[in-house]
Write a structure and sequence with these properties.
The protein has 384 residues and is of the alpha+beta class. The protein has 2 domains: 30 residues; 299 residues, Jelly Rolls (Sandwich), CATH 2.60.120.200. Strands 1, 4, 5, 8, 14, 15, 16 and 18 form an 8-stranded antiparallel beta sheet that branches. An 8-stranded antiparallel beta sheet has the order 2-7-17-9-10-11-13-12. The protein has a two-stranded parallel sheet with strand order 3-6. The relative contact order is 0.21. The N terminus is likely disordered. Bound molecules: 2-acetamido-2-deoxy-beta-D-glucopyranose (5 copies). The site of one 2-acetamido-2-deoxy-beta-D-glucopyranose has 7 residues, from helix 7.
Length: 384
């Protein structure tokens, strides 16, 4: 579903296309024979020849200027120097889900799903969202053996909206399995794509090929610039009108999502959003930087400027981050089928899942035992 958007109008090389003027004995375009004398003496050139020479010089100068501008852009890179962060919000403990609205409308991405409200999700019967003092769980119903109009699942949206910050997600377990479309992301759903979307963790079906971190924006946001990241570029144009809203994605290694991540004890995803750019890191549990406290009672703020190269880097070089991203809520959900996970080219061809996606959802309740998000905490730090 991704095309490589690699068109660089910028890569033309300008060179003079006009050589020296023609030999003096040729007939110029005014039909007159050139006077005797050196071809190289401008006094002997016709008006047309002079105009041609001026045009050639202009083309060469324009080429030098354009080349310099392109060269500057290719080498330019924002200044991500340290910001003084302080802890603003901690989402943890038994009250974890109190900070969210439960989305209950039709799925905007056409999933075979019923997003339930907090009463159903929190009920003893379904128990789809559950928070203890140590962690929070969000999952898909595994009890309905005939979910013929779509299976129960959950999509939560933080009541609070943000305009920048350092977001630290301590993840114990990521959901996976045929038909699932799992995401932990930021957006302003009522003002999309104008206010942007930041997909921090997203994967579909068995999700064995790693996390995809992606931005979706209104027009004029491209990542065809210098970046410092370990992930693989999938697409460079973040504009939602490009490639059927594929966004500008960056893919992590297989260890960054799914069963591989879960068996390694989970880890921390961190996202820094500031005017200079948006960067996303993944740290497996065994290699969390020492300046990220895992104990939520410790309010010390981490310093991303000391961390290794991020998985994904979206600098502001050719995308005005401040105007493309505003009023973002934190959203987590597990969709089922829908425009990504359920597309035949993905569900069947790429991910080798059986039959029809909707049949799988309706009839395979026990398959959703692996469709579980579990978080220790989410923390948000802001800079003064
Ligand atoms: C809900 O799920 C949690 C976590 O799996 C579990 O500890 C708890 O006992 C469940 N509650 C009910 C009523 O089944
Ligand atoms: C992109 O966003 C515009 C504006 O909301 C919308 O009209 C259009 O349908 C979107 N395109 C896609 C492919 O989502
Ligand atoms: C809080 O966390 C920081 C960073 O991990 C650590 O250096 C500091 O010692 C911790 N403070 C306490 C009181 O544990
Ligand atoms: C952001 O939200 C605030 C408060 O609801 C609102 O006043 C403002 O217009 C919003 N800004 C944008 C760009 O949507
Ligand atoms: C249920 O899952 C099993 C194992 O993946 C699969 O073989 C079977 O085809 C699935 N059933 C449906 C109705 O999709």
């Amino acid at each position: 579903m991704y095309q490589n958007v690699n068109t660089r109008e910028t890569e033309m090389i300008y060179s003079p296309t006009h050589g020296p003027p023609p030999p003096y004995d040729s007939i110029d375009s005014l039909g007159k024979t050139a006077p005797n004398g050196s071809t190289w003496n401008p006094k002997n050139w016709s008006k047309v020849t002079i105009l041609c020479v001026i045009a050639a010089v202009v083309v060469v100068i324009a080429g030098i200027i354009v080349g310099a501008v392109i060269g500057t852009r290719e080498n330019s890179y924002p200044d991500y120097s340290a910001l003084a962060y302080t802890l603003e919000d901690t989402y943890s403990g038994t009250g974890f889900f109190d900070n969210f609205d439960y989305f209950t409308g039709y799925d905007p991405t056409s999933g075979f799903v019923h997003y339930v409200d907090s009463e159903v999700a929190d009920s003893q019967q379904y128990n789809l969202t559950y928070a203890s003092s140590s962690s929070a769980i969000l999952r898909v119903d595994t009890t309905d053996t005939d979910a013929s109009t779509g299976r129960y699942s959950v999509r939560i949206t933080s009541k609070k909206q943000y305009n920048s910050g350092l977001f630290v997600f301590d993840i114990v377990n990521t959901p996976y399995g045929c038909s699932t479309w799992n995401a932990l992301w930021l957006s302003d759903p009522n003002n999309w794509p104008t206010n942007g979307e930041i997909d921090i963790v997203e994967a579909v079906n068995q999700a064995t090929s790693g996390n995809q971190a992606t931005l979706h924006t209104a027009s004029d946001c491209k990542m065809n610039v210098k970046r410092k990241q370990t992930g693989t570029v999938l697409s460079k144009n973040c504009y939602n009108g490009t490639d059927n809203n594929a966004g500008c994605g960056v893919q992590g290694a297989p260890s960054t999502y799914g069963q591989a991540l879960n068996t390694a004890g989970g880890g921390i995803y961190a996202m820094e959003w500031r005017p200079e750019g948006i960067r996303i890191w993944f740290f497996p549990r065994a290699s969390i930087p020492s300046d990220i406290p895992t104990d939520v009672s410790n309010t010390t703020a981490p310093d991303p400027s000391t961390w290794p190269t991020p998985l994904a880097d979206f600098p502001n070089t050719n995308c005005d981050i401040s105007s493309h991203f505003r009023n973002q809520s934190i959203i987590a959900n597990i969709d089922l089928c829908g425009t990504w996970a359920g597309a035949t080219s993905v569900y069947s061809d790429e991910d080798h899942c059986p039959g029809l996606c909707s049949d799988f959802v309706a009839g395979n309740n026990t398959a959703f035992e692996t469709a579980v998000w579990q978080w220790n905490s989410w923390r948000v730090y802001t800079a003064a």
